[in-house]
Structure formats: C-alpha cells, structure tokens
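Hey team,

Filing this mostly as a record. A colleague (T.K.) asked me to run one chain through the structure pipeline before their review meeting, and I want the input and output archived in the tracker in case anyone asks later how it was produced. No errors, nothing strange. Just documentation.

Input sequence:
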Amino acid sequence: MTLPLSRIGMVCPYGWDTPGGVQIHIKELAEYFIAKGHYVSVIAPVTDESSITEPWLVSAGRPLAVPFNGSIARVAFGPVATSRVRQWIASNNFDLLHLHQPEVPSLSLIACWSSQGPMVGTFHTAAAKQRTLVAAGPILEPVIEKLTARIAVSEMARTTLKEHFETDAVVIPNGIDSAKYSKAIKSDEYRGEPTIGFLGRFEEPRKGLDLLIKALPAILKVHPRAQVIVAGPGNADSFEKNLPSHVRNHLTFIGRLSEEEKANFLHSVDIYVAPNTGGESFGIILIEAMAAGASILASDIPAFVEVLQDGQYGTLFESEKPESLAREIIGMLNDAPARLMKSQAGLTAAARYDWTNVASEISDIYEVALAAGGGVSLGSESRPWKRFRTNE
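Output structure:
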C-alpha cells in the first residue's frame, strides 16, 4: 500500500531533552515521514524550550519525574499539559494521531481522551502485571478501546498489552537508520588493550553497570590492561568515589555521545556489553550495536534473547550474575574469530530494522486507520487529568 500525503500528529509522553529509546524512535520516524512529503508535528514535554531545534516539535510544558517500570519517567500531566495538547490538536487539522505509550499518565493519554478520529497507539513497555495499571484499568481500558489500531514494538510488549488490557496489537519493531551506522569509523578514543564498552544511564541500577564493575576484577586477572569505557548521562564523580583504585583506574567515563559518536563508539570497542537486569521491552541499543558491527555481550533477559535470536548475533550471559558476565567476556576476548562471526551475522540481520522496512509497516497501519475517515477532532473530555486523579 502507498500512504497518501497526510497530516500526522505524533505524541511523545516522555521528556524530549532526556535521552531514551521512545524519544529517538519518534524523532527518526517523524523525520522519515517528513522526508516522504507528509506534514508531521510532534508534541512532547520539554524541560528547556529554548533548546528546541526541530521545527516540527511543540512543547507541552516541563515534565515531572515519576517512578515507572523500574526507571524514572519524565512525563507531563495536568491542566497546563491538557490545554497545550488540545490547542495543538485544534490548530493542526490532523488526519491521524500516533500516540506512544497511551497507557502512561502523560500526553498520549491526554490526547486520546481529548480526541475523536483515527488514532494509532504504539506500546513500548514490557512488564509483569503491575498493581498501578491493574488499578487504573477501568479508566484506561476505554482509552485503549478508542484506538483505531495498536502496535507493539516486540512480542513482550504485545504480551504486556494483552495481560493488562485483554486486547491485541500488531508487532512492529523499533527502527534505525542503518546508513548512519554503516558510516561508523574506528576511533582511537574508544580503542585499547582491550576495551569493553557500556552505554546508558549508568546511575540507573537496571542498566547493570554495577554488575560489570563486580565482574571486572576477574576479567583483569586474565586481561590486566582491559579498560571499561562508560558512555551516557550521569554523575561520574559520585559513581566512582566508592570504588577501589584498582578498579577505578580501569574505568573511563566519557559522558553523552552524539549520534555520530555513538556509532563510532559501538564500532570501535572490542566488546559492547549490555548488562541490563530487566524492564526492557525491545533493546534498540542492541540493534544499533549490530548495525555498527559490534561484538555484543548481553544479559539473557527476554527482550535481549529475542533480539539476539538466542545468541546468534551476540553472546548471552546469566542476568545479574557477575561471574557469568566475567566468564563470557574472557571467552570472547580469547576467541576473536568467534566474535567476528557473530558480529557479521548481526550486521546482516540489522538490515531488517532499517526505517525503510519498519516505516513501511507503520504506513500500512496508518492506511488502515485512515480508512475510518473523518480526520481528528477534539472530543468532549476537557479535564482528563482530574478524572485520572479522582480514580487513583
């Protein structure tokens, strides 16, 4: 099918200026459809409105940090956010809305409550049945039912949706720009004897940097010059201060990376490690690492097992077991040909996730939703935030 030129509104529930997989997914999807000639506008919470560089991005106000799914989500919910979402809908004459994480109390939920017409929802979360979502079921289920079509980014996210709301979705994975990673170069900044790379919000326990640090002494016994390079946001000084010097001397914190720097980082390190302990529904960073030709070691949480196809495209270790992590790193460092074989297989497999394929599948869902006709208009619900609070 070929999607006719359309006016598409995308809603991001999480703070735009906080790095995360959902934000990157929305940004790259918006840019893809804009390049195809569609009109796209994205609304998101923004901490610093003066920092907005995308001409298609609209701020819904400052986000508030709240615990969610083992992490901290920066969301916007309340009268100011509701007013801005409704103004955005009223002024854009959208043919369709694409709402990300409409089950989270943030902008997508507000937009779904506030609108009538074609709406597509994408569900990114994979989690065991949670009390908060179960308790909010009577409020959220009518919202989920309003969606014209539903997408889950993985089988795990689809299962979560079915368990919480007894409804189904089409599985379409997150996408990547393969060309960006094919241009990656070996950078001396990320090379050593050898280098082990970590990328993520390292102060967040579920990202697993503590596990890698616990595994490091055993690794150093075999590879005494190994260096762990940590990329991503966080306070390195605070994190390092309690570490013994013999471990601290083998850690280098390099802060946040640009997209180009990230590709070079993944392409350059000897092993990229994803020691996450849970809370992941997909694992977009693994796809990016595969596209960069990285040798990957990841915990055997379900989302990573699915992406790496039970170890075909990277090596798996027992989640939350530093001794297993150390053993697999040593084995990988000692067997370069086996590492190369898996990284080549991963590089080939990553092509499936290029936006040319993923966005085409999303376009098909858009066409199904647009077949309902009528365009998007404001509904009668003007204060969904009050309704949600009343039922907490």
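Quick notes for T.K.: The first strand starts at residue 7 and ends at 11. The radius of gyration is 21 Å.
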